[in-house]
Amino acid sequence: MKTTIIIGSGNKKKGLFWDAVIFANHVSGKVRLLPYVFAEKHKRFKKLYLWYKYNYFFLISFPHIRTISLHSLQKLRQINSILILEKIPVYLVKPLLEIKRRYNTKIVFMVNHEMLDKSNLSTIKDQVDIVIVKSEVAKKMVHETYEGMGIAYLQLPSAIIPNSNRKSEILQQGEIILFHAAGGGGVLYNGVGRKGTEYLISALDKVDTSYKLILLIQKNNYTKHLIELAKHNNNILVVEKHVNDRLYQKYLESSHLAIYPSKVEGYGLSLIEALSVGVPVVTTDASPMNEIVIDGQNGMCVSATLDDEESEYPIYSINVEALRETLINLMNSPTRLKEMGTNAKNHYAMVVKNFQREVNRVL
Known about the structure:
CATH topology of the largest domain: Rossmann fold
Distance between the termini: 13 Å
Strand content: 15-25%
CATH class of the largest domain: Alpha Beta
């Protein structure tokens, strides 16, 4: 039986936490998780404290997935493959290379295009056997930077387990429930957050169709102005707190349409989460968003323009009028929404099947 080590963040608030869980749930054989902390500024004792704290977190949250420390890792008799998620901590470089030499272990590195640390990858690029990318954008960037390096394109499934009792019937005269998670907002691009929440609020400003938008916001300095914008629309229900996973899924599954007019996405996990529970998605017609949402089938892709051609990675501005028109057309077509929801489930089933096949081939 093969043994795979997955190295990623132990911080549940980071997307890498879920990436680690997704891989661990689909890789065959024994899986061990080695959490790390990104903050290199921490002193060694602080880092170790956080390390074991998050080891414990992993154990109580996912008892079927075992965690491991670096000390225990070096005592294993055989390691077939090591999957590193997005960043190689400096203090792990030497141990990893020693393990590769000792066991002839395959080292696989997964990157996001908007977090591609070229200097970090170059640290052990000669020892990396294959790079996993989650989008065509990331594939192009890795190819241009490290020509000749092995690349595997994988679409990740969701960590959400769909509720089979979800009620998705839409009455002809009923209220359409929309969903959007703005999160903490993160970096602003020309005054707009990465999820394009400002575009969505603006597009809904002149929509007369009966609807309710569930808008999840983590309250901070950035999101204050989103709350101010949203309060002028009585059809927007603002949930301004960090919701737990169960409540997040409940809100998502109660919706008929998810909307993400994103300016940039590393992969688009929010999009794939919606598809996994049969909720179609309206998003930006650009990579990687339009690789997950197939226009006219499991959702709609709205035209957008490239903000800055000189940027290291592509950032887009969506056409707000086109977004408004798309939303009005879909909200006035409940039958079409229902068909797209069915297509969303079918598409997601294909994503899971392809992922299980390819990830076990790569690892």
